[in-house]
Each structure stands twice: as structure tokens, then as C-alpha cells.
């Protein structure tokens, strides 16, 4: 089997976080496209996961050495579409906040408003 090397780079912004939701924005670049020329599924999941964690952390910044950090125990990703270019928006909202168990739903949409990914994250730990 021939050696295969894969490289990619993502860049996105968290543009808003409040007690109810977090919003991130990302431009689709060639660096996150798969061999078919559409967004690699893992790139969508990572984008949504970081936006969800931004909601969980609120005003806090992630730091090494923190005593207690929320940990995702399940990620349920529904890949509903893809695109080749354009602007994406991820919006994370609370589904549940009960003690140490948190659930967040994050939808990633393209510039036309089509849902590309619907990610449900269950986390345990600090809130």
C-alpha cells in the first residue's frame, strides 16, 4: 500500500457567547475539503464541538492545569449535507443542564441556511 499523507488546517471565530447560546463562523477553504471536493466530515464535527464547548465554558478561557474541566462523553453527529465553499455558521444551544450532566445541540448551516451538521454533545464535569 502506498503511503498516504493527509494535511489540513482550520480557522474559525467564536463570534458570540451568552448564557443561552454560542455562535461560531468559518469560511470553507481548500484545506478542509476531502478527495471529493466537499467538506471533510471531521472538520464539521470539530467546528461544532468547539462552539459547543464555548457555550459550556461561557466567559472562561480553557487553560492547562485546570482542576475540573467538562468532558464530552457522547457526540452524536447527524451529517445532513456538505458544500464546497462559502461561509458556515455554527450555533450551540442548551438542551439540558442538570447537575454535572450537560447537553448541547449545535447546528452548522451554510450560507443558504441549509443544516449541514446537527451535533448533540453530552458532557460531564464542571459548569
Automatic annotation (TrEMBL):
<dbReference type="InterPro" id="IPR029069">
    <property type="entry name" value="HotDog_dom_sf"/>
</dbReference>
<protein>
    <submittedName>
        <fullName>PaaI family thioesterase</fullName>
    </submittedName>
</protein>
